[in-house]
Specification:
- The chain is 32% helix and 29% strand.
- It has 248 residues and is an alpha+beta fold.
- Strands 1-2-11-10-7-8 form a 6-stranded antiparallel β-sheet. It has a 5-stranded antiparallel β-sheet with strand order 3-4-5-6-9, covered by helices on one side.
- α1 runs antiparallel to α2 and α6 packs antiparallel against α7.
- The two termini are 26 Å apart.
Amino acid sequence: MDISTADWTVAGRRLTAAGGSVVGNRYSENYDVWHLDPTRPLAVVADGMGDGPGSAAAGRTAVDVFVRRSAAVSGPEGLRAAVADVQRAVRAAGHGLPDLTGCTLTAFVGDSSGDDGAAWLVQLGDSRAYRLRDGLLELLTVDHTLAWLGVLHGWYAADSAQARAARYRLTRYAGHPAEPEPDLLHVALRAGDLFLICTDGVSDQVGYRRLAEVLQATTDPATAVRTLLDDTLTTGDDNATATIVAVG
């Protein structure tokens, strides 16, 4: 298991980050794609839909385009424009491929425009961003799935067969024919915060209490990433990717 690390500064605050990924036991290849930028505060994860060439092309294209475009923009309008370019590029990458070309996209983008430091969270699909603050682990993003809508509005129980089936029906993703916009969330950076950006191979296979336990046990992102990915190999079988950002 290879763990990459990075150190950044946002408005005078030091951020320490780590990321990694495992194939798991179901697939022969990893259809998750991730990027931890070595020079600027940027962490991106994407999870391909399915296990064919379209899935692989979507994840790689989405991450590469977002990394490149986000370097040249700032603020909400710039990030929306970057994701719009991702949408067009993923759809173009799918031309001629026999299967669905689509993926999730979730990103942490540091924002140095203010005095105290902040970050943008970019959300498209059902990968997730969590924050541990003052001992409380909160899910900051919304899953763009029919399962999320169904459980929220009481259409079916969270542990029902209907919910499990709806978990794989995404309402927004990169490569969607309607090219939907992402959710954008602007979050303050407070000393001691830990942000977890992960694919559903982590959030579906490692329970909330265990996620909180691992993040509360250490302030070292690399240690926490390694522990979470090890957990996925014993509790599940999906591709799993996690990046953690610690605010110093």
